[in-house]
Sequence to fold (320 residues):
Amino acid sequence: MASNDSDRGPTLLPAALKVLIAGGFGAGKTTMVGSISEITPLSTEEVMTEASLGVDDLSGVENKTTTTVALDFGRITISPELVLYLFGTPGQERFWFMWNELAAGALGAVVLADTRRLETCFPSVDFFERRGIPFVVAVNCFDGAAVYQPEEVRDALSLDPQIPVLLCDARVRESCKEVLITLIQHLQSRAASTV
Amino acid sequence: MSDRRTPDKASDGPGSPVRPYVMTEGREATNTVQLDMISVVISARGEVDELSLEPEQLAILDLCQRPLSVAEVAARLDIPVAVVKVLMGDLIARGYMLARAPYTIQHPVVGRDVLQAVLDGIQRL
Ligand SMILES: Nc1nc2c(ncn2[C@@H]2O[C@H](COP(=O)(O)OP(=O)(O)O)[C@@H](O)[C@H]2O)c(=O)[nH]1
Ligand SMILES: [Mg+2]
Fold:
């Protein structure tokens, strides 16, 4: 799709990749994006996915366009050729329609498990498992909440043994870096075992 | 934006805060480029026929003097992604803008290089 242009060739344009940050409402998704992004996290208000928007077919749309969903995302410039975007997924189940578009082409995902209510990340885990989208589980430890060991979380979520589970603090940049590094290394080991 | 609303489009019913399709009226037919939320775009250099463009399209061209993703443009201009895609599709079709599709890891060998580059990039942060 990169068009040719005599002035600004396609080589000037980096290619983008994306990673999703998922988890229940209040699990720390926006916090994590903000901790690691090089830009202040941005937010777009989405009215509908395009499929549902039907730009020139207004009749069936009016009653549906009332649903808006805020997506927040951040950016990490990897090199002049590569940019990584981090998208927080909408944390409510009524926004599943948004997930399909978000998940398309994603490198992988981080599922934030909130130790105060572990079950709120079940839908995210299910979604990525069913789609075959690689993910890691980052256990976000909230003050005063029960402390879980990664293996307890793995058991509670019935995760495959090869899926990494690690503790994190979404407010701490180094901790978020470690989560992303774990995800990329997980992708690398998957690639190595399938090729 | 609001001065372009026409009564035959949609009614301002309660709870319909945005009616972005008004802004993109008549543009979708020329839109042949498949843009993704993370397609990266840049404005092309050269003359622009400003009168033939929507104010939002001029704002997009202004903003994209350096590479930005579709999602970033949408967020900065506070226009929904779906609408930005239509407006940009038109700009690309007219040669006012260039786009690069997102990277997709299909080729295992290339994919490996890219993963390593991403890993190195994150470690450098
Ligand atoms: N103690 C603690 N608080 C956190 C952590 N991550 C996020 N929070 C707080 O939890 C609240 C909700 O976080 P937010 O990122 O908005 O959750 P989201 O709904 O998943 O986007 C905010 O007040 C954060 O400051 C964490 O790792 N530890
Ligand atoms: Mg949030």
The helical segments of chain A are 29-36, 50-53, 96-103, 122-131, 150-156, 173-194. Chain A is about 30% helix and 25% strand.
